[in-house]
């Protein structure tokens, strides 16, 4: 890992990702983009017929989702975000700047080679606690995420309170994970919790029934502890856990 973050190279890469053409996701009506989040397709074929429809020509920014109807409007968005990128002063600023939060792990994967260990670690920790199910992000594998945490400096991944609790963990701990019923590869996951009741909540938050796993793991295989969302989450190297039990739980 380099000693000094090369922010100019990060910005260069960010602009490459920004200027990707949005890709329609089949049978969903949604659009994939590594930097921005759209709620509709770009209509190039019928754009001329909509020139007088002022509402369709506007860029709508609602709940951080962009609605773009014409190619020239997309160009304006690219120019706007390019100017934002030029003003970035810290690597972690991109966490706020990237409109499509679920793509943060992909952005991290593409730019981590240009940052030092401090920025690498801070971005990883903030990214992990910000987005829903970061281990399900496209284009980044769980194996890669485990390796990222192993490379990171725990002092910057966690805040002081979390680091203090992490340091106080015993050499072996019991952990729990709750998932929807019949979910595949449920134990091959980074995210577990120290709180049994929280695991039960995760198991039944979408359905009346779910599955809860109980396992043991050594502290050396606990990669981080997070509690900003009051989940008592432990990020682990799942290759080294010892499964104790699997049980069905109900609301």
Q: Runs with pLDDT <50, length 5+?
A: 44-63
Q: Structural class from helices and strands?
A: alpha+beta
Question: What is the share of helical residues?
Answer: 25-40%
The number of distinct β-strands equals 10
Order of helices and strands: HEEHEEHHHHHHHEEHEEEE
Mean pLDDT across all amino acids? 88
Largest sheet descriptor: 3 strands, antiparallel
Count of discrete alpha- or pi-helical segments spanning 4 or more residues: 10
Tell me about this structure.
With 251 residues, this protein is of the alpha+beta class. The protein has ten helices and ten strands. It has helices at 7-18, 54-57, 71-86, 93-97, 104-111, 117-130, 142-151, 154-157, 160-168, 196-204; strands at 23-25, 30-32, 60-62, 65-67, 172-180, 191-193, 209-218, 222-226, 233-236, 242-250. The protein has a three-stranded antiparallel beta sheet. The longest helix has 16 residues, at 71-86. The protein starts with 6 loop residues before the first helix and ends with a strand. The model is unreliable at 44-63 (pLDDT under 50).
């Amino acid at each position: 890992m380099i000693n000094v973050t090369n922010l100019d190279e990060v910005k260069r890469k960010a602009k490459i990702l920004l200027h990707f053409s949005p890709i329609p996701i089949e049978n969903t009506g949604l659009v994939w983009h590594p930097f921005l989040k759209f709620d509709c397709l770009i209509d190039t074929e019928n754009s001329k017929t909509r020139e007088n429809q002022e509402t369709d020509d506007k860029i709508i920014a609602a709940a951080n989702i962009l609605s773009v109807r014409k190619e020239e409007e997309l160009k304006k968005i690219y120019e706007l975000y390019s100017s934002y990128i030029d003003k970035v002063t810290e690597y972690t600023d991109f966490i706020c700047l990237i409109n499509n939060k679920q793509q943060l792990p992909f952005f991290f994967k593409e730019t981590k080679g240009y940052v030092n260990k401090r920025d690498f670690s801070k971005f990883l920790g903030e990214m992990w606690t910000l987005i829903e199910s970061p281990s399900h992000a496209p284009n980044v594998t769980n194996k890669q995420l485990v390796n990222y945490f192993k490379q990171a400096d725990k002092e910057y991944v966690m805040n002081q309170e979390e680091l203090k609790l992490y340091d106080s963990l015993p050499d072996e701990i019991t952990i729990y994970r709750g998932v929807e019923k019949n979910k595949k590869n449920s134990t091959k996951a980074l995210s577990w919790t120290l709180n049994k009741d929280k695991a039960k909540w995760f198991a039944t938050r979408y359905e009346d029934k779910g599955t809860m796993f109980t396992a043991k793991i050594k502290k050396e295989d606990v990669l981080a502890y997070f509690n900003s969302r009051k989940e008592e989450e432990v990020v682990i190297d799942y290759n080294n856990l010892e499964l104790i039990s699997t049980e069905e739980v109900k609301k």
